[in-house]
Design brief:
The protein has 6 helices and 6 strands, in the order αββββαββαααα. It is elongated.
C-alpha cells in the first residue's frame, strides 16, 4: 500500500491530503488497480477504517474532493451527503448543473411569458411537463 500513499501529498493530520495523480472532472482522485477503477478517497477510507457497506458514500468534511485524509472522511447515505452539500451552500443549480438543457435566460422566458407550454417545450426540446414544473416553481426556483 506504500504505492497508494505515495500518490498523495500527505501533510499534517489536520490538513487536506491531496491526490496528486489523475482526477475526474469533479476533482475526485481515481486510479486503476487490478483492472478496476477506484476513487482514492474511498480507498483511503477502507484502508484506514475497513470495508464500506453497500449504499454508503464516503463524504468529505473538508469539501475537497481530492482529499484523502482519513480524518476528513466520514460515511453517510446519499441523502446525508446531499444534506451536507446543501447546508454548506454547494448545491449546483440551474445552467451550471451538468445535465441542464436550459440556460437561465430560457427559464426566465418560460416562467414569465404567456407563450403556450407546448410551443415552449418544442422550442427548448423539453416536455410540456417541465414547462409547467418551472411555471409552478417546482423547479428552477432561483429564477
Amino acid at each position: 500500500m506504500h504505492r497508494f500513499w505515495s500518490k498523495i501529498d500527505i501533510k499534517n493530520d489536520n490538513e487536506c491530503w491531496e491526490w496528486i495523480r489523475f482526477k475526474d472532472k469533479a476533482g475526485y482522485g481515481q486510479f486503476r488497480y487490478q483492472k478496476k477503477v477506484y476513487y482514492a478517497h474511498r480507498f483511503s477510507y477502507e484502508l484506514t477504517f475497513g470495508q464500506i457497506a453497500n449504499g454508503l458514500c464516503v463524504c468529505h468534511s473538508c469539501d475537497n474532493p481530492s482529499c484523502c485524509n482519513p480524518k476528513h472522511l466520514w460515511l453517510g447515505t446519499d441523502r446525508d451527503n446531499q444534506k451536507d452539500r446543501h447546508s454548506k451552500g454547494r448545491t449546483v443549480k440551474g445552467e451550471t448543473h451538468g445535465n441542464s438543457l436550459l440556460k437561465d435566460k430560457d427559464v426566465y422566458l418560460i416562467k414569465y411569458s404567456n407563450i403556450p407550454a407546448k410551443i415552449l417545450a418544442k422550442k427548448f426540446q423539453i416536455s410540456p411537463h417541465v414547462v409547467w414544473s418551472i411555471r409552478r416553481n417546482d423547479s428552477w426556483r432561483h429564477i
